[in-house]
């Protein structure tokens, strides 16, 4: 009985051990490839979500700016600038809506400029705190978008125009300098993906305020004449 038991006890042969090691190595390699693929997919999704979030923030910021655009000229070192300027790639305009909760005398109006720097592939937002300045005031600068491959702005009035005010406008006429186009169109490419954004420049709140002021003045003049 003892001899028979000894004969039944067998270990792994060298061939079986090598086969087991080979199978384990193949499974480990396949498992690592799957794990590495999942990590890369996760990283790509995180990068895509970050890029999408940045695009949404930039869109919302431009939307807030354009909704508050107003037909007010800017006085830069005694040079009257149109309410909106699009010349040779430079784009800036006047906007309102700045609050002053602490009553510090902060102007409700400011000047905003969008500046694309192709060498950095960045879109900047420059903000001047007052419509009247000496020209030496430094704006507040922030990055709206990174990885911008192409950027272009055109105005809509209603046709697309590459410059504003229009060529036939008399730039010595202050009233004409206050005219705003109907809207703007922004074309940009971020990481080989093209986008096209359209914004209206019709500030309904400002128009209501202006109409209310005109009506009040008209009523005041009528009351004076009847009295």
Model description:
The chain is α+β, with helices and mostly antiparallel strands and 227 residues long. The chain has one domain (18-98, 107-208). Helix content is 39%, strand content 29%. The protein contains four helices and twelve strands, in the order ααββββββββββαββα. The protein has helices at residues 2-8, 14-67, 174-177, 204-226; strands at residues 74-76, 79-81, 84-87, 90-95, 110-117, 122-128, 132-133, 140-145, 148-156, 160-161, 183-190, 193-200. The protein has a five-stranded antiparallel beta sheet with strand order 3-4-5-6-8, with helices on one face. It has a four-stranded antiparallel beta sheet with strand order 10-9-11-12, with helices on one face. A three-stranded mixed beta sheet has the order 2-1-7, with no helix packed on it. β11 and β12 (193-200) form a beta hairpin. The longest helix is centred in the first third of the chain and has 54 residues, at 14-67. It is elongated and about 105 Å long. Residues 213-219 have low confidence and may be disordered. It is a single-pass membrane protein. It comes from Acinetobacter kookii. Belongs to the GSP J family. Residues 38-65 form a coiled coil. It is found in: Cell inner membrane.
Instruction: Count every beta strand, where a strand is a DSSP E run of 2 or more residues.
Output: 12
The dominant shape is elongated
The biggest beta sheet reads: 5 strands, antiparallel
Parts with pLDDT < 50 across at least 5 consecutive residues: 213-219
What is the alpha-carbon Rg in Å?
Answer: 33 Å
- Total discrete domains: 1
Coiled coil: 38-65
Transmembrane segments: 12-32
Subcellular location: Cell inner membrane
GO biological process, one term: protein secretion by the type II secretion system
């Amino acid at each position: 009985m003892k001899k028979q038991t000894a004969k039944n006890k067998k270990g792994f042969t060298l061939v079986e051990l090598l086969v087991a090691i080979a199978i384990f190595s193949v499974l480990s390699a396949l498992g690592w490839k799957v794990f590495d693929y999942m990590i890369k997919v996760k990283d790509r999704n995180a990068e895509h979500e970050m890029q999408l979030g940045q695009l949404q923030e930039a869109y919302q910021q431009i939307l807030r700016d354009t909704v508050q655009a107003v037909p007010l000229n800017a006085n830069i070192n005694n040079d009257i600038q149109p309410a909106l300027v699009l010349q040779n790639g430079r784009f800036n305009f006047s906007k309102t809506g700045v609050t002053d909760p602490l009553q510090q005398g902060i102007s409700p109006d400011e000047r905003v400029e969008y500046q694309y720097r192709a060498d950095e592939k960045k879109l900047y937002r420059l903000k001047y705190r007052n419509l009247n300045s000496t020209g030496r005031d430094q704006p507040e600068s922030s990055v709206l978008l990174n990885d911008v491959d192409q950027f272009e702005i055109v105005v809509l009035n209603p046709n697309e125009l590459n410059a504003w005010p229009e060529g036939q406008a008399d730039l010595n006429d202050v009233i004409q300098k206050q005219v705003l186009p109907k809207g703007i169109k922004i074309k940009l490419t971020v990481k080989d993906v093209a986008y096209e954004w359209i914004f209206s420049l019709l500030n309904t709140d400002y128009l209501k305020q202006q109409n209310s002021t005109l009506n009040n003045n008209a009523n005041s003049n009528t009351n004076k004449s009847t009295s």
